[in-house]
C-alpha cells in the first residue's frame, strides 16, 4: 500500500465488503511505496467497479481511506495499489494481520437549508395524501364532483378574402387555363385555392379540382372546412 496523501477519499462510509483479505505468513515490514498482495480462495475476481479512482476503506488494526490507482489479478492473488487520503496518516498496514477492503460510499451532498421543512396544517390535502400513502388513515370521500357542461355549437367560420385573393378566385371561375399565384408563408394561399375550388365545383359540379398543400394538418383542416361548406350551402 502506497502511503501517499490525497485530498479526496476522506470521511467515506463502508458500503460494500470485499471478500479479499491479506492472509498467509507474516511478511516483513512494508517499506514506503510497497504494494500489498491480497490472496483469495479459488480464482480471484476483481469487482467490475473496482478500477482506478474508486474510493475504498481498509480495515485492520487501524482504518484507512484510500483511492485505487490500479488493480490486477496475478495467479491466485489480487494486487491493489492505492493512495491514502490525508485523514489516514495514522493508518498502519499491520504485518500478519487480516485486512478487509470495502468500497467507500460516495458522500451525499446536503442542499437543504435551515427551516426547509415546515409543518403542514391538519386539514390540508397534501397531508391527507401523504398520510394515506404511508399507512395512515384513508382519505374520506368528502367532496362533490361538480362538472359544468359547456355546450359547443357547430359553427362554420366565415372566410373573408382580400382583393388579391378575390382576383385569383375570379380568374379560376373564368376558366383561364393557367393561373399563377404567389405569396409569403401564412398569406392565405391554401385557403384561397380551397375557396376557388368550392365555388368552381358549385358552378360546374362535373369538373375535377386538384388541391396541393405542403402540410398534412393543413390538408385535414381544408378537408373539414370544405365538407362543411359544400354540405351546408
UniProtKB/TrEMBL annotation:
This is DNA2/NAM7 helicase helicase domain-containing protein. Residues 1-46 are annotated as: Disordered. SUPFAM superfamilies: P-loop containing nucleoside triphosphate hydrolases. InterPro entries: P-loop_NTPase (IPR027417). Residues 1-10 have a biased composition (Acidic residues). The lineage of its organism: Eukaryota, Metazoa, Ecdysozoa, Nematoda, Chromadorea. It comes from the Eukaryota.
Amino acid at each position: 500500500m502506497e502511503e501517499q496523501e490525497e485530498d479526496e477519499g476522506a470521511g467515506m462510509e463502508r458500503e460494500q465488503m470485499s471478500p479479499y483479505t491479506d492472509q498467509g505468513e507474516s511478511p516483513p515490514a512494508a517499506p514506503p511505496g510497497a504494494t500489498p498482495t491480497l490472496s483469495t480462495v479459488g480464482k480471484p475476481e476483481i469487482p467490475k467497479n473496482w478500477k482506478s479512482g474508486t474510493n475504498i476503506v481498509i480495515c485492520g488494526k487501524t482504518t484507512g481511506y484510500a483511492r485505487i490507482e490500479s488493480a490486477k489479478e496475478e495467479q491466485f492473488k489480487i494486487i491493489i495499489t492505492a493512495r491514502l487520503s490525508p485523514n489516514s496518516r495514522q493508518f498502519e498496514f499491520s504485518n500478519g494481520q487480516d485486512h478487509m477492503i470495502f468500497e467507500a460510499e460516495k458522500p451525499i451532498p446536503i442542499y437543504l437549508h435551515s427551516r426547509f421543512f415546515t409543518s403542514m396544517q391538519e386539514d390540508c390535502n397534501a397531508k391527507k395524501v401523504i398520510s394515506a400513502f404511508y399507512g395512515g388513515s384513508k382519505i374520506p370521500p368528502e367532496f362533490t364532483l361538480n362538472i359544468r357542461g359547456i355546450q359547443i355549437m357547430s359553427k362554420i367560420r366565415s372566410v373573408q378574402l382580400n382583393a388579391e385573393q378575390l382576383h385569383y378566385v375570379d380568374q379560376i371561375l373564368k376558366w383561364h387555363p393557367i393561373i399563377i399565384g404567389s405569396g409569403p408563408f401564412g398569406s392565405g394561399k391554401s385557403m384561397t385555392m380551397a375557396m376557388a375550388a368550392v365555388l368552381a365545383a358549385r358552378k360546374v359540379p362535373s369538373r375535377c379540382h386538384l388541391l396541393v398543400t405542403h402540410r398534412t394538418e393543413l390538408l385535414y383542416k381544408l378537408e373539414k372546412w370544405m365538407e362543411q361548406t359544400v354540405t351546408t350551402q
